[in-house]
Amino acid sequence: MKKYYQLTECLLRLIKVQIEKYTGLASIGVGPDAGINGFLVVDEVNELLQFASTLIGLMIKRKEDELTFRSILSQTQFYLDQEHLRGYAGWLIDENNIHNTEYKRLERYKADMAEIISSSMIVDKSKPQPTNPMQQQCEHDSHSIAFKITDLVIQLRGNPELELNESVAPKHALRILRKHAQDDGRYHQPKIYEEIERLHLQCSEYLSKSSLTTRTKPLSKEEASTIRNNHTKQFEDLLVQYQKCNSSSKLFSENPEWYDIAGRNQITPPTTPGVYSQGLFTNKTAIMFSIGAIAIAMLIYKLMITSVTNSHTHSLP
Predict the structure, then answer these.
(1) What percent of the chain stands above pLDDT 70?
(2) Which of 75, 154, 210, 215 has its CA 20 to 30 A from that of 140?
(3) Is pTM, for the whole model, over 0.70?
(4) Do the beta carbons of residue 199 and residue 150 sit within 8 Å?
(5) Which positions ≥6 away from 109 have C-beta within 8 Å?
(6) Which domain holds residue 170?
(7) Contact in structure between 236 and 275 (CB atoms under 8 Å)
């Protein structure tokens, strides 16, 4: 059941990162995942926890179910694709500690998934599609985020001094973008700008065909804290169950390997081998975020809130 172990460990690493992400971003109140996709990330974690529970249930029974396995594998890949889309757009507009760390982590996920697919002898390489309304919303919002930030970059590249309302573009973020928009700046690097234009067009075409409306209700710090406690308990329970299936996993070694978020790995020592305390996810997750990166995240949040009133939902230019 090697491939079941591999996919379960990939899911557990992904769950941990997503809980840290929505908790940390909600604690500072900005960012695409907190301000725009906060509740979608929460919904995503709910699904990922169920995926992991299903796989562990099969392993406990020593039962293989190829249809279920491939479905979970495809849906996990779908979520990774959406995170990559948002992360790539963020990296294009400003290379910083958060975006670089996310890219490194996504590359490791990519390698993990490639190994699982290879082990499973899966030849179908078609792009995973959303399988339910929540996943459709996640796909829509991911494209909406990428569109709005690349659209602003294109405007500023044409006119770095473009007058923008501070309610749309916070001063710190705008300062970074204006710097990149200068003739010798990041947005005039041919390869970077070609990718910005390509992504802008890709997202514009997607959104022009979408009938959904971007979700903009922000996830509050209090809500995130309550949900985190519940998710952490479920996560720890799954670790206990998984340890019974595969006690030799590296996740239960003295120095378990978990993927970083925002340039650091905040893991508390296990209270019991393989079992982590409630301190696994700290309220200080966002402390290490750079000021520049926070400003960019705030910009994305404000852009998305503004876009709703400007009717960029059913038909985009």
Answers:
(1) 76
(2) 154
(3) yes
(4) yes
(5) 10, 13, 14, 80, 259
(6) 2-212+287-309
(7) yes
Distance of CA 281 to the CA centre of its chain: 17
Condensed to tens digits (0 to 9), the pLDDT of residues 252-294 reads: 887 777 766 654 444 333 333 333 333 333 334 433 444 455 5
pLDDT score of 304: 57
Domain assignment of residue 130, yes or no: yes
H helices of the chain, in order, are: 2-28, 38-60, 66-93, 97-120, 133-158, 171-181, 190-209, 221-245, 291-309
CA distances from 140 to 86, 145, 151, 213, 273 (A): 11, 9, 16, 8, 41
Cα–Cα distance measured from residue 289 to residue 101, given in angstroms and rounded to the nearest whole number? 11
Is residue 78 helix, strand or coil?
A: helix
- Return the structure tokens found at 203: 């997202």
Helices 38-60 and 221-245: crossing angle, nearest 10°?
Answer: 20
Check residue 255 and report its DSSP letter. Answer: S
Whether 236 is covered by a domain: the verdict is: no
Measured CA distances, 148 to 35, 184, 279 (Å): 14, 23, 36
Please count the residues of the chain: 317
Q: Which two tokens mark 25?
A: 């971003």
Name the domain count of the chain: 1
Query: What's the average model confidence in pLDDT over 90-119?
Result: 84
Residue 28 lies in a domain: yes
- Which band of pLDDT confidence, cut at 50, 70 and 90, is reported for residue 34? very low
